[in-house]
Structures are given as C-alpha cells and as structure tokens.
Amino acid sequence: MTQLNAPTGLPSNDELARIFHEIGNLLEIKGELVFKTVAYHKAADAIAHAPFDVSVVYAGGERRPLAGVGSAIGDKITELATTGRMAFHEHLRAELPATLTDLLEIPGVGPKTVRAVWEALEIETVETLRQAAVAGQLRVLPGISAGTEARIVEGIEQLASRPDRMLIDRAQAISDAIAAVLAAVPGVTRVIQAGSLRRRRETIGDLDLLVETSDVDAAITSFTTLPDVDRVLGAGHAKASVVLRGGPQVDLMVMPEGASGTCLVHFTGSAAHNVALRGIARERGWSLSEKGFLRLAPDGEPAAGADAELRTMPDEAAVYRFLDLDLVPPELREDQGEVDAAHAGRLPRLITRADLRGDLHSHSEWSDGIHTIEAMAEAARSRGYAYQVLTDHSQSLAIAKGLTPDRVELQRAIFATINARFAAEAASGAVPPGTDPGFRLLHGCELEIRADGRLDYDDDLLARFDLVVASVHVARRQTRAELTARTIGAIRSPHVDVIAHPAGRMLNERPDLDIDWDAVYEAAAATGTALEINGSPPRLDLAPERARRAVAMGCLLSIDSDAHRTEELDFVRWGVDQARRAWVEPGQVLNTRSLPELLAWVAAKPSRV
Ligand code: DGT
Ligand code: CA
Ligand code: CA
Ligand code: ZN
Predict the structure, then answer these.
(1) Which atom of ligand 1 lies closest to the CA of 201?
(2) What's the pTM?
(3) Ligand 1: which residue has its CA nearest to atom 29?
(4) What's the gap in Å between 268 CA and the centre of ligand 2?
(5) Does ligand 1 have an atom closer than 6 angstroms to the CB of 415?
(6) Which run of H or of E encompasses 267?
(7) Distance CA 535, CA 560 (A)
(8) What are 332-388's pLDDT values in tens digits?
(9) How many whole angstroms separate alpha carbon 355 and alpha carbon 372?
(10) Distance CA 251, CA 38 (A)
C-alpha cells in the first residue's frame, strides 16, 4: 500500500527501524555471528531515535552521520530511500520460509528459539509450534524447558487475542485514498465514509464506504479493481466487499438516490445506537431498517397488502425528526444516553478544532522532536493559534534527550528572541495573513514524574516556565497505589498545570497504567489541574469514557498534539474527535481560552493547592 503511506512516500524512521530489526532477526535465525546481528539492531535503534527524517535525508543524497550506522548499512538506507527496495533484505526474506517471521511476533519468542525449533524440528508456523509445545516436544532442545513450552503456548494465545484494529490515522488515510478514487468514477455524486471511522472511534475494524451514483456497476467495478485489492469477498448490484493487501476489509454500499437517510444511519452505527432507534420506531408503529421505515400492523408485523407502507428519508436529519429526535452527531452514536438527550433537546454543543486557541504540549529538536524551536513556532502561528507551548522533556528522561537546567536557560533566550521577532512583525503590520498578531510562543516543559514520585526540576526552575505539563514514562508497572500517588503528587504541585497522557496509553501495544481514576479526577478538579486528551493516534489518552467521567467530576481538559515535528501539530484533530466522543463542550477545555485567560489560570495555580 505504498501510495497510502507517509505523505512523502518514503519509509518513516519507525518503518526503517522495523526493517533493520527484522534483518538482525533473520540473520540470527540463519545462524550468523552475533556481532553482525547486533550491528543491525543497534542501527535500527539509532534510526528509531534519529533527530531527523532518515530516509528523506538519505534520499536527498546526504549521508548525515548516525551513531551505529556504518557505511554498509548507510548504503542500504540510501538504496531503500532512492529505489524503494533493498536487495539484501529481499534476498534474506527469500532464503528463509516466510512464516518464520510470524514466530517472532509471539511474545517471549526470540530469534534463538525460532532458529532452534526450525533447525531441529522443522517448525515453520505458529500453529505447528503451538502443537509441538502443547505435546511437550520442544523440551528435547537445549535451553527449552517445560516452563518455556508453557510460556510459548501462553504467548501464542496472547497473539491470537491481540486486537487487530487499525489506528485511526491509518484508517483515515486508506479510506480517503479509496474515497478519492470512487469520487472520480463517472456517475458518482457522493461518497461517505461511514461505520466506526465516521463515529471517530479510536481504532477501526473495517472500513465502510457509501456511494450515491447513477452508474452502480461502474462504481462497484472500480472498487473491486482498486490496485491494493488482495481479494474480493463479494460483489453484487448494491454492495461489494474486498480485503486490501496487508490491510483491512472494506465494504462498499450503494445508497438509493435521494433517499439515503436510513441507509446512512444504518451503516454509520453503532449497532447499539441502531437498536435503540429501532426500539423507538417500534413504539411509534414502524420498523426501521437501512431501507426505510416500514409501517407495522397491530400484530407487530409489517403491514401487508393495501396497508403496506415504506417511508424513505432524504437525509439523516429527516430520520431523526421522524422519531422526534434532534440530529445526533456521529461521534455520540454509541447508546450512551444520546437518544434520551436528543429527545429532550439536550445534546451538547460539541467542541470543534476551530475552538482551540493554542496547543499546550509539543517538542523541538532540543529533546526528542525533529524540528527547531523556531520552525515549531512558525508552524503553530501559521495555524492561526494565539499561543503554542513548547514542552521539551525534563532532565531524567535521557532516552528523549531531556534538558538539564542549563539547557533550559539557554532555551529561554531563544524563546525571547523568537517572540521579539513576532512582536516586531506585528508592530510593523508584517504578520502573514491568517495568523494572530498577538501570537506568543510559550516556554514549557514536559516534566517527568519520577519513579519515586519526585518531580524532575526544583521549584525555582519550575516557577519560571510559562506552563508545565507533567507525565509518567518510567516505572509503569508499579502498584495502583504508587501510580495513583505519583499522579496526584504532580497534580498537587503549585507548578504543574496539565497532566499529559494520564493513562500512559499505547493502543494495541501495552496495558494502561493502573490508576485509581476517580481519585485522580477529584484531585485534578480540586486543584484546577487540566487532564490532557493527547492527540497522537496511538495514545488518544485520556480515552473518551475517562474524559467524560473527568468532566462530570468537574475537571478541565486540554487537547494537545504532543507534536514532535511541525506536521504533527495537526494531531489535535484526533484529540478533538475523542473530546467530541466524550461529549465535551468548548468551555471544558483549557486551550479554548485566550492567551491572557490561560496565563491568569496558570498564575493562580499556587493559590488553588
Ligand atoms: P468496526 O468496523 O468494528 O470498527 O465497527 P463498525 O461500527 O464500523 O461495524 P461494522 O463495520 O461491522 O458495521 C458498520 C455499521 O453497520 C455498524 O456500525 C452498524 C451497522 N451494522 C452492521 N451489522 C449490524 C448488525 O448486525 N446489527 C445492527 N443493528 N447494525 C449493524
Ligand atoms: Ca466498520
Ligand atoms: Ca463493515
Ligand atoms: Zn510529549
């Protein structure tokens, strides 16, 4: 799915790192010398943490040095970045059974084990490995005990139960690409991305697209012959389903022209919301399906003969109106009270991206970001914001190049220079169109909440930041009592204004921090400390259920990008989605406030604790 990947079409640092880790693993399975395999893993780590976009730089012909990347590996990066392929990697994959890399996906199974079972027992697939482990056939191998066998079986079970749902940014990119193709097919007048993507769920199972067209066959044919289609599950005159190569299933439905209302409602879901609507329809004497409202006879069955009546609806609003409901925004259609609220005329006025006046959490190249402070500031200003808080990591987070107090002081001078330039531009009327002449770059930090609960800078230094976001990155496996105490300790600090990604969530990767949430919400509400909805697609943390509860308990939220590069400032869009799913209104979000209001709120924190 190359054309659907990163905007540049070049592999990201993470993708490059994955390839080099795989090379290291494949070499180890082949039995190569350890120093050789280690070199690839080291290079992969260096690429993953590189402070610049490696394939972009190498594609441009520059061989910018990276610790751990020698000339042989450098050549391979250049080859991949310029030709889109790497012969060495392809040969290696071709030499070994393709399914061996699947074995590496099993938690707790490394290349050593894979090599052992493959060489001695010719095991190549997850299923044969499972059977052999269950039958106790692996323990004949050196280094494998009955306990190892049990761990392998457990790992395979974990693998099978792992949720296989896409992150929303990837789902959106694939869906947008397909929608663009369909929109260009002759006869197509409308394309709608429905299902869980339209409801903006955090993760997406399959994609559901709806089209309105005067030429059904042309739409279906262009859909089933998309270049990325791996197989066609079915294709008829009103719908089709395909599976994309290395990607999700996609369902296409054709909407009846001029009568799309019930079809749209049905395929937007959720199933639970639809069930609730059907209940209301039934009370009123109608059965509701994607085709429309069908009148029910007194026996509760659809009326037949001369009494038969199907009412179609031109649009969604008409469907809801027919049921005496306000139009429910797709983000709320989860059967979480929205139907009652729509009936009572009490749906919230949901926050939109345009309500955000700034962003409270972002990084520069000074810690683990890619771009300069100035580039980040320019990018934020060009988005029409009134302020941007740049929050590089604090000193103890070495992996992210956290800043020592000396470097914080150096940084402060740069912020002053940039703000002086912005002020001079505003004074001379030279601000670019679409930007706020009062734009201010604010100096913040992402303050590490250390394992022992202490904060990573002393109070004097903390007091000098414009705004502080605090977060947990280390000692994630502590007890609930410890993790709760660490979080609340930060909340009670007179200098901490926001708790960033409070649950430490990484979707599809690891469990959330074990925290007593109500205790955290209570402390945050009492001290006026904002809780973040982090817009980074694998995070989306606080989750919407948590954010909704936090607001109900009186908490203020922030919606932040956590951008590590200029383009990622747009991550707030995913955060806004989740805030909407949490029923959040603009007044409940700190960064909808003006710059003076924000600064006054920060200044008053000591008086609140
Ligand atoms: P996903 O794909 O797991 O992320 O979630 P959805 O909500 O997109 O689910 P999907 O693709 O199975 O179906 C799309 C919509 O179609 C769903 O939101 C509601 C409707 N729908 C599909 N199957 C059923 C069903 O069995 N009952 C009801 N009430 N609605 C259904
Ligand atoms: Ca779906
Ligand atoms: Ca579907
Ligand atoms: Zn961050």
Answers:
(1) 4
(2) 0.80
(3) 271
(4) 8
(5) no
(6) helix 261-268
(7) 6
(8) 999 999 999 999 999 999 999 999 999 999 999 999 999 999 999 999 999 999 999
(9) 27
(10) 44
Give the total residue count for the chain: 609
Taking only the tens place, the pLDDT of each residue in 402-447 is 999 999 999 999 999 999 999 999 999 999 999 999 999 999 999 9
Coil/strand/helix, residue 316: helix
β-partners of residue 531 are 499, 557
Pocket test for ligand 1, best of 165, 206, 243 (most atoms within 8 A of CB): 206
Same fold, 166-255 and 367-608: no
Position in ligand 1 atom list of the atom nearest CA 273 = 29
Q: Are 494 and 438 in contact (CB under 8 A)?
A: no
- Sorted by where each begins, the domain ranges of the chain are 6-161, 166-255, 266-344, 367-608
Residue nearest atom 15 of ligand 1, based on CA coordinates: 267
Task: Tell me, in angstroms, the distance from the centre of ligand 2 to residue 408's CA.
Answer: 47
Indicate the fold that domain 6-161 takes in CATH: DNA polymerase; domain 1 (1.10.150)
208 lines ligand 1 (CB under 6 A): yes
Could you tell me how many helices (H) and strands (E) the chain has, helices first?
25, 17
Q: Which ligand is nearest to the CA of 501?
A: 4
Q: Tell the CATH superfamily of the 166-255 domain.
A: Beta Polymerase, domain 2 (3.30.460.10)
CATH class of the domain defined by 266-344: alpha beta
H or E element: which one contains 311?
strand 310-311
Ligand 1 atom 26: the closest Cα is on which residue? 271
Ligand minimally distant from the alpha carbon of residue 269: 1
The closest ligand to the CA of 400 turns out to be: 4
CA distance 79 to 63: 12
Q: Which helix (H) or strand (E) holds 276?
A: helix 271-283
pLDDT in tens, 200-227: 999 999 999 999 999 999 999 999 999 9
Q: Is 270 in the pocket of ligand 1 (CB under 6 A)?
A: yes
Residue nearest to atom 9 of ligand 1 (CA): 195
Ligand 1 atom 3: residue of nearest CA: 205
Which one of 1.10.10.10, 3.20.20.140, 3.65.10.10, 3.40.50.1820 gives the CATH number of domain 367-608? 3.20.20.140
The pick from 266, 278, 316 for probing ligand 1's pocket by mutation, whose C-beta has the most ligand atoms within 8 angstroms, reads 266
The C-alpha atoms of residue 139 and residue 126 are separated, in whole angstroms, by: 17
364 contacts 386 by C-beta, under 8 angstroms: no
Q: Provide φ and ψ at 251, rounded to 5°.
A: -105, 135
- Cα Rg, the chain, nearest whole Å: 27
Residues with Cβ within 8 Å of 298's Cβ and at least 6 positions away in sequence, in order, are: none
**Ligand 1 center from residue 206 Cα (angstroms):** 9
Q: What is the pLDDT of residue 6?
A: 40
542: cis peptide before it, omega within 30°?
Answer: yes
SS3 helix, strand, coil % of the chain, rounded to 5?
45, 15, 40
- Give dist(CA 207, CA 233) in Å, integer: 14
Query: Measuring from atom 16 of ligand 1, which residue has the nearest CA?
Result: 267
